[in-house]
Amino acid sequence: MNTIFFRSLLSEWLKKKRTAGSWLVILGGFFIPVIFLIARIVQSEDLYESNTSTEMWDHLIMNCWQFMAIFLLPMGVILTTSLVTQNEFRNNTWKQVHTTPQHFSVVYFSKLIVILIMLAQFFILFNVGIYLAGIIPGFFFADIPFPVQPYPFWPSLQLNAQYFVCCLPIVGLQYLLSLHFRNFLLPLGAGIALLIAALIGLQWKYGYVIPYSYSGLQFLSKNQGVPPTVNIAAWSTGYFLLFIIAGYFLYTGKREKG
Questions:
Q1: Which of 85, 200, 206, 223 is most buried per CB count within 10 Å?
Q2: pLDDT of amino acid 223
């Protein structure tokens, strides 16, 4: 069983390379850091003061997450999950997948794990991009020192773990919808509608009931002094488990799988 699952996981990983989701992870991970890198180089007169500040990395990380957490990260998760999940629908290959000697649970969870690995890959690239945006200007200007503040590795790792958990409900629901509906626009439209509802409901005291709101709520609680009214990690994990379990039973119980 372990060998079958590993081969299924490897197969799903190879298949995702032919999807736009792979490029979306790479481009999305570097998009915001590249913008800040260009801005730092163009505004070189501020570089010395910035790099000699003892809070340089704190400000750069916060600014990058400000543009990523509330909208771009949830939107990227919606698109990537939908694109990867619906690869068989677009290529009309679900029947070929189901003729292979692997249980439906193997197919279901191997594809899900690949999506989660891609999400982790995005976070790694995003943080690499932030680090490069901080140090690269020092190579262009001889009179600009490298950042004097040590890179806050552990606080950054904890922050990324929190945002990763916040993305899990989006992965779970988009995965459920993308497996259940053949039309790509249905899960995509539902995801965008829920994201818009989440953005509107960020200031609502019951906004936490919308599963796409958690990365925005996490940013507000960390950087805007808005205390969360609930345990964001617990709600995110609960929604994720609910969607994954429901999606599993819908997938395995569906008569026509593709």
A1: 85
A2: 75
| Three-state SS annotation for 84-153 | HHCHHHHHCCHHHHHCCCCCHHHHHHHHHHHHHHHHHHHHHHHHHHHHHHHHCHHHHCCCCCCCCCCCCH
The low-confidence residues of the chain, meaning pLDDT below 50, are none
Q: What is the pLDDT of residues 60-73, one digit of tens each?
A: 999 999 999 999 99
Give 37's contacts (C-beta < 8 A, 6+ positions apart).
129, 132, 133, 136, 137
User: 258 in a domain, yes or no?
Assistant: no
Could you tell me if 166 and 214 are in contact, meaning their C-beta atoms sit under 8 angstroms apart? yes
Q: How many domains does the chain have?
A: 1
**CB contact at 8 A, 44 and 141:** yes
pTM value surpassing 0.70: yes
Task: Note down the domain range covering 87.
Answer: 2-253
Compute the distance between CA of residue 84 and CA of residue 235 in angstroms, rounded to an integer: 25
